[in-house]
Amino acid sequence: MPPKEPRFIPSTPAQSLAFLQKVSIFSHVAPDALERIASIVSERVHPKRSIIFHEGDEGDTLYIIRSGRVKISKITEDGREKTLAIMQPGAFFGEMAIFDEMPRSATAEVLDEPVVALTISKRDFERVVLETPRIALQLLRDLTRRIRQVNQQVEDLAFKDVHERVASTLCSLSRVEGRLLGGNRILINLKMTHQDLANMVGSSRETVTRALNRLQDQDIISIAHQQITIHKPEVLAAWA
Ligand code: CMP
Q1: What range defines the domain where residue 64 resides?
Q2: d(CA 148, CA 150)
Q3: Which of 120, 177, 198, 237 is deepest in the core (most CB within 10 A)?
Q4: Is residue 69 within 6 Å of ligand 1 at its C-beta?
Q5: Atom of ligand 1 nearest to the CA of 106
Q6: How far apart are the CA of 21 and the centre of ligand 1, in A?
C-alpha cells in the first residue's frame, strides 16, 4: 500500500494573514488591504509528485506556495526535461499566463512532500494590484530578479562546460537548500537523482555522473541517500 498523505488541515483566516505578511509581493501592503486579500485567496493541497499544471494548459490562477516545493520545468516531446526553477515556500508562480493570457509556459510539479498553495484568480489578482499598486512594484522587483537568474543560466549554458555547470548548480542549491554541518561542510537538503541534477544542469545523466564522480574523487563532495554534502565549498566555488 502506498504511504498515506498526512491529513490536510486548512488554515484559519488569521493563519493565512500571518503567512501573506511574509510573502514578498505583499510585504508592503497595509494590514486592512492584506485582510481583504486573505479573504479572497483559496487554499489547495497537491499531493507529492503530482502535476499542478502542464506546459500548454490554459490557466488563470496565481499560486503562492505555503509549504512544500514545486519544480518548474519544460519537457520535450521525446521526454527530455530542463528544470527552470525550484520554487520554495513564499514563492509565487503562474503569473505569466495571467499577464499575457497565453497558455502555461512550463510544467509545475510537486517535489517529494505535498504542497499547500494559496491560489488567487486572475480577476481577483488584477483587482488587488489595481487597488494596491505597491504589489505591482514588488512583483516587478521579483520578476526582474528572475530575469537575472535566467540570464545567468543562459550565460552558463553558452560559456561553461558541464563540469563547471554542475559545480555552479551545486553552489546555488547550497545557497537555497544548504544546511551547515560541522567543519564548514554543507548538506544540500534535497533528494536528487543524477537525472534530476542533469535536468537542472542541461546535460545528459552520464555526463553529469562523470562530473559528480570527479568531484567525489577529489573529496570536494560526497553523496549518500541521494543527498549531496559539499566538503570544500571554496574549492567548489572556484570550479563554478
Ligand atoms: P505560467 O506560464 O503561467 O506557468 C508556468 C510558470 O512557471 C510561469 O507562469 C512562471 O510563474 C514560472 N516560470 C516560467 N519560467 C520560469 C523561469 N525561467 N524561472 C522561474 N519561474 C519560471
Answers
A1: 7-157
A2: 5
A3: 198
A4: no
A5: 5
A6: 23
- Within a 10 A sphere around the Cβ of 118, how many other Cβ atoms? 21
Number of domains in the chain: 2
Query: Hey, which of 60, 92, 96 would you mutate to test ligand 1's pocket, going by the most ligand atoms within 8 Å of its Cβ?
Result: 96
Q: Is the CB of 97 under 6 A from ligand 1?
A: yes
pLDDT digits (tens, 9 = 90+) for 18-49: 899 999 999 889 999 999 999 899 999 999 99
Q: How far apart are CA 214 and CA 212, in angstroms?
A: 5
Question: Which pTM value belongs to this model?
Answer: 0.91
Q: Could you tell me if 81 and 196 lie in one domain?
A: no
Contact 72 CB / ligand 1 (< 6 Å): yes
Question: How far is the centre of ligand 1, averaged over its atoms, from the C-alpha of 14 (Å)?
Answer: 29
Using a 6 Å cutoff on CB, does residue 93 contact ligand 1? yes
Closest CA to 81 of 90, 69, 92, 73: 73
Ramachandran sector of residue 215 (left: φ over 0; alpha: ψ -120 to 50; beta: rest): alpha
Are 142 and 203 part of one and the same domain?
A: no
Domain boundary among 157, 173, 201: 157
- Residues 146 and 175 reside in one and the same domain: no
